[in-house]
Amino acid sequence: MQLADQLREARTHKDILLMTHLVLGYPSFAVNREVIRQMVANGVDMIELQIPFSEPMADGPMIIKANQEAIANGTKVADCLAFAEEMAAKYKIPFLFMTYYNIPFKYGLRDFLHKAREIGIRGCIIPDLPPEEGEEYLGLAKEFALAPIQIFAPTSTEERMRTLAGHGDGFIYCVARRGVTGSKTEFDASFDAYLSRCRKATDLPLAVGFGISSREDVQILTGKADLAVIGTATIRLVEEKGPEAVGPFIAGLIRHPHKS
Amino acid sequence: MNNPENKPGYFGQWGGAYIPEVLYETFRELKEVYAKAKTDPAFWQEYLALMSSYSCRPTPLTHAENLSRHFGGAQIFIKREDLNHTGAHKANNVMGQGLLVKRMGKTRVIAETGAGQHGVACATMAAKFGFACTIYMGEEDVQRQRPNVFWMEKLGATVIPVTTGSRTLKDAINEAFRDWVSNMDTTHYVMGTVCGPHPFPEMVAWFQSIIGQEARVQILAAHGRLPARVYACVGGGSNAMGIFQGFLADPEVELIGVEAGGKGLETGQHAARLASQDASPGVAQGYKTMFLQDADGQMRDTHSVAAGLDYIGVSPLLTDLWEKGRVRFAAATDQEVMAALDLTIKKEGIIPALESTHAFVQAFKEAGELNCEQAVIINQSGRGDKDIFTIAHAFDDPSWKDFIRKKGEEYAAR
Question: Among 3.40.190.10, 3.20.20.70, 3.20.20.10, 3.40.50.2020, what is the CATH number of A3-253?
Fold first, then answer.
């Protein structure tokens, strides 16, 4: 099933879906493995695997540190691919790659996307590759049936959103606010107006990320978005309390009544 | 394959605008304001008037007679960008962008800086135009360029030491972008060099073209014909693009870019992207060029005695000119730079910045190949006397070290 349809189908059973994120190789693949096990066991619907890059321009301090330390620990792109293959084979939920464009560019764009497809990855998020620069990527993603996730920002005009949606598949990643990953987001009237603009621009499922860290945040998004994205919060949690804290945290986020 | 040759912001296959979506509208506005300014003759007139009254334009072209005689070859001319206000060619770019900021109605500027030259120039511009100013500077560079930090702060700027990554120029650029994605409504990012996403490379090159325009007129007046060769150091490449643009249309003028050879190309501790075999095509910091990176695409640590040349990437305009064979690239080692600096000070009474001295090294190596009827121009992008801490340290000067020790004791005793 296409990723978008699969997410729509999953939404018929839940009020909101959860996508989580982690940086591969940070603090180690062993910890990544345990964190993913707990995420899946506690009902996470999709996981974004970030392949570390030395210049993570769109990320905040926590994820920058994770990128740097993963690389310093000797994490190679090949290790990330092997790990992703293992996870995609083990769990049924969809896995995505998130990384900056230089990683697939240097690997060889066609080879990278072909490989991603072969190991069971369902789509890619590349925050520094707007569609104007991504013609080749968008074409190859289509060829390999990978969803090239497009990103909406609060600064995107309606016209721009429609253009982006036309290039996207799977779902749209709506950046909740300006700035980088990891700081708090205010959910005010302008946020609601932004989400309705997003909704109007596309039929694809909407994921909202940047600064989503609590059960309250997820509740606010319920009914407005299809997916809540938890990024920095779990990385911080693993750092402070260890991987065993992830399961209870995730369970607490989504203890919502099922649709009857 | 698509054909990027026709895409805006590309120079051959290099350049582009690899930006996060949140900045799309900001770049659209910047491109619009820049395009309007470029077609408005009054804008360039305003710019020239500002540069002649506030900076020192036109900067002179000095005939270095003693050095010419010393090498017994070409007549050596030096384009004196060091005589700009704030001591380097960086003023040309920041004043131009400052005028654009006024047109955009923004009230705050941010910038990255390596050696601190661009930071000081930007803080100066902000003081003059009444903008708030934040400068991002790698922690390592804050340590080695303390006097520039002092001046930036005195000029009213907030200097933020960057502790991520290698704590140098590239990390300062990342941090400036992170600020910009939060504050784009009020804030303009004054990119300091001919790198980054479109329209920065083209726009900064436009402001710096003033160097080449003047140099061409000046060498014809002083020497009666075009120079055989023009030398410029290349970090990001803004002073080089500035002077080269005056001669790009003259195929008889050879253009030479000189990169940081650091401890020697064979050691791997250098910042030579185009003069070494170590760089490969990549996309980072918003643009495509030749980067010093590993097989996975992770950026490598670079090294140079000159903070302003210590950078992983290079202007897409220069990479294109290199690929097309129009600009030749060479590298100068830290050691060669110190020898050339010493010679230039002694022979001409001129103190080039460590960055600029890289261009002198290559010109000195080649001067003897030419005859005394031929001329070469070296672009002296900045002055070295304000880098006294760095240069005294690089010379390992005993009386200076003694002075610093005594100053330290004096402050400690208070």
Answer: 3.20.20.70
Write the ipTM. 0.94
| Residue B284 included in any domain | yes
CB contact under 8 A, A103 and B297: yes
The pTM of the full predicted model, rounded to 2 decimals, is 0.95
What is the full DSSP assignment across B123-136?
HHHHHHHT-EEEEE
Sort out which chain B residues have CB atoms less than 8 A from A110's CB and list them.
Answer: none
Per-residue pLDDT tens over the stretch B271-292: 999 999 999 999 999 999 999 9
Q: How would you classify the pairing of strands B61-63 and B75-80?
A: antiparallel
Nearest CA-CA partner of B136 in B112, B153, B157: B112
**Domain limits for position B148:** 12-52+89-200
Same domain (yes/no): B107, B194: yes
Q: Cβ distance B350 to B279 under 8 Å?
A: no
Assess whether B316 and B223 both reside in one domain. yes
Q: How far is A211 from chain B (nearest CA, A)?
A: 13
User: Of B144, B167, B200, at which residue does a domain stop?
Assistant: B200
Residues of chain B contacting A136 with CB distance shorter than 8 Å: 1-2
Minimal CA separation from A107 to chain B, in Å: 7
Yes or no, beta carbons of A55 and B165 under 8 Å apart: yes
The answer to whether the CB atoms of B178 and A179 lie below 8 A apart is yes
